[in-house]
Amino acid sequence: MNWRNIAKISEDVYWIGARDWNRRLFDALIPLPNGTTYNAYLVIGNNKKALIDTVNPGFEKEFEEKIKNVTDPSEIDYVVMNHAEPDHAGSIPYIMAMNNKAKLVATSKGAKMAQTFYKVPENRIIAVKDQETIDLGGKTLRFIEAPMLHWPETMFTYLPENKILFPCDFFGSHVANGLYDDEIEDLLVYAQRYFGEIMMPFRIMGQKAMEKIKGLQIEMIAPSHGPIHRNTERILNAYRKWVNGETKQKAIIVYATMWNSTEKMIQPIADTLTSEGIEIAMYNLTFADIGNIAKDLVDSRAIVLGAPTVLGGMHPLGVYATYLVKALRPPLKFGVVLSSYGWGGGTIKHVQEILGQTRLEVVGAMEINGPPSESNIEQITEIGKILAKKIKEET
Ligand code: FEO
Questions:
Q1: Position 290 in a domain
Q2: Cα first-last separation, the chain
């Protein structure tokens, strides 16, 4: 059996997902430089068979063939929909049409979405409650409600006999190659990037879900994107830190510059932070991959935003970055805004308008006319030193 096609990942449990090497964007927003996978699994019990999640539209035929490698699709009894987003649920109409006996299993919110999005008739849906089980004969599916990870209807499925958790998007990563975590170098970098893009705004719900699965014996975590975790402690430890908003002595610096004046303001603060022993991640917004910015927002304690004023407000790339910070809700504690303008300022006010009420402590904000003078550089260096001190003092 070729693992690139299907893979037996445990006794009577098969990976039958799809690899999308060419996908380059998710939600018309998030770059996917390494593609992704849409993982789906087939669980074969003594009496019943269950499919856990499906695949992105466009892969239906391939999916059907993979199912046929293991069983006759007409023998599937349950289609578990852990999450209603189309990358996992988009093939549900195809699967339900292939087999007229299978029941769709979802949370009560998922059940409504399945009717609305995928036109699944109500009489073919089983709405399950938290901790409810379905017996497949020697295999039990236990459903764990895990709402807002990252949609309202999301749940996990746990298979106690094999000690496998199927958490759908949670613990995922966007990378098309590899079946298991140990096959992917820098897996945690991919996982952190994915967490920043998708799960970071829902950290509190993530904490609740982590608490719920704490007592489970988990030997394998089989998410819906990216490799399956055999080293479960590694990803669980990382997620404990990320959902709790643990930050490092690190600052993310994002900036846009038109005629290099803002960049000349950014450089001294970057140098100061570095010489003070603060880790920095720096992105020129003109070229930056926002997935990398999301990754570094996960564990940065401070942000330095640089943007010139243009057309009466902050440069649009700065607006975009500021809005992203607001939307992704990273655990940042401190912020600095640096801006240069030609004939009229406004960037600092614009940042305040976008962020509104925020817990971010603004350590320094400077708007200057044209390129920075020697004394401006000294002031920025001073702000950098104060910021470094704050970062080091915060635990
Ligand atoms: Fe991978 Fe939320 O879908």
A1: yes
A2: 50
pTM: 0.96
Measure 36 CA to ligand 1 centroid, in angstroms: 11
Domain boundary among 211, 243, 275: 243
CA count, 13 A, side-chain hemisphere, 199? 34
Q: Is the minimum distance from the CB of 225 to ligand 1 under 6 angstroms?
A: yes
Ligand 1 centroid to Cα of residue 63, in Å, is 18
Residue span of the structural domain in which 341 resides: 250-393
Residues 175 and 256 in one domain: no
Q: What is the pLDDT along the chain (395 residues), one digit of tens a residue?
A: 444 589 999 999 999 999 999 999 988 888 999 999 999 999 999 999 999 999 999 999 999 999 999 999 999 999 999 999 999 999 999 999 999 999 999 999 999 999 999 999 999 999 999 999 999 999 999 999 999 999 999 999 999 999 999 999 999 999 999 999 999 999 999 999 999 999 999 999 999 999 999 999 999 999 999 999 999 999 999 999 999 999 999 999 999 999 999 999 999 999 999 999 999 999 999 999 999 999 999 999 999 999 999 998 999 999 999 999 999 999 999 999 999 999 999 999 999 999 988 889 999 999 999 999 999 999 999 999 999 999 999 97
Q: How many A from CA of 244 to the centre of ligand 1?
A: 22
**Total number of domains constituting the chain:** 2
* Ligand 1 and 56: CB distance under 6 A: no
